[in-house]
Write a structure and sequence with these properties.
This protein is an alpha/beta fold. Helix content is 37%, strand content 27%. The strands form two sheets. It has a seven-stranded mixed sheet with strand order 6-7-8-3-9-10-11. It has a four-stranded antiparallel sheet with strand order 2-1-4-5. The chain is globular and about 60 Å long. The chain starts with 5 loop residues before the first strand and ends with a helix. It binds adenosine-5'-diphosphate and magnesium ion. The site of adenosine-5'-diphosphate (ADP) has 12 residues, from strand 1, strand 2 and helix 1. Magnesium ion (MG) is lined by residues 48-49.
């Protein structure tokens, strides 16, 4: 377990709807190394957000396990999980989810307050984030006084203020126009270089996914490796064929 930053095994998340059950995440497994950038693509409704929420400890699975830094987050109590998330995990949503009554700066500092961080431990980092995200002249504004791109940049600063080891992002530019989306994604990747954190991003944008070390595809609750350093695996069928060929080769000769 300790070799991977994140390791998920056979994760299942189902929702009851009247008398039927939707299996949004159907025995999904993945391993992510420290510092890796993993993209998750797939059609709307295929289960990407549900999986990301389970991986980030925002939601609990009915089956399977999620280990982060070698610790089983699915076995943690709500309090333990809260502390763990505050210290090691960050998340950026499609909608910025900023608190409307707080200024940009107050929003950014929420995780430091929750984790009781002393000012001097994050001031330098805060300055770097503000500079990189170009939000220095917007800090005293309320979210409603910011453009969509600025709101999302504030949300990114908030997600990164505690220097998380894993940043989760769920279509972080889905609500932005092309120009703002490109700018925000460039910044996210620049910050990834600066902080060196692991990045797991749900995106429908193939030009972004192509920059990832690995691409997974979600299809009807199932997760498939779609691209890695070896290249593309276009379909689950192709993956099954590959597995079958490998198992053929592995058979001893008689
Ligand atoms: N809280 C919920 N209650 C019931 N069904 C849900 C809930 N969240 C997600 N679903 C269902 O799970 C499936 C996957 O949804 P989601 O993870 O949001 O997909 P994606 O992010 O890929 O668009 C969908 O069929 C969706 O309707
Ligand atoms: Mg989604």
């Amino acid at each position: 377990m300790a070799n991977y930053m994140l390791e998920a095994n056979d994760v299942i998340r189902q929702f009851k709807q009247y008398d039927s059950v939707i299996t949004a995440v159907d025995r999904c497994s993945l391993k992510v190394e420290d510092g890796e950038f993993v993209a998750i693509i797939g059609a709307s409704g295929s289960g990407k957000s549900t999986l990301l929420h389970v991986l980030a400890g925002l939601d609990r699975p009915q089956g399977g396990s999620v280990y982060i830094r070698g610790q089983n987050i699915t076995a943690m109590s709500p309090d333990e999980l809260g502390v763990f998330r505050g210290n090691y995990l960050g998340i950026v949503f499609q909608k910025h989810n900023l608190i409307p009554q707080l200024t940009a700066l107050e929003n950014i500092l929420i995780p430091t307050v929750m984790c009781d961080k002393k000012d001097h431990t994050f001031q330098e980092h805060l300055k770097k984030l503000i500079l990189a995200l170009k939000i220095g002249n917007r800090l005293s504004h309320l979210p409603s006084e910011l453009s969509g791109g600025q709101q999302q940049r504030v949300a990114i600063a908030r997600a990164l203020i505690n220097r998380p080891q894993v940043l989760f992002a769920d279509e972080p530019t889905g609500n932005l126009d092309r120009k703002n989306a490109d700018e925000v994604l460039e910044l996210l990747l620049e910050l990834k270089k600066m902080i060196g954190q692991t990045l797991i991003m749900v995106t429908h944008d193939m030009s972004i996914a192509d920059k990832a070390d690995k691409i997974y595809m979600m299809d009807n609750g199932k997760l498939f490796l779609y691209k890695d350093k070896q290249g593309y695996y276009k379909t689950s069928y192709e993956l099954e064929m590959k597995a079958a060929l490998e198992s053929e080769r592995a058979k001893p000769l008689e």
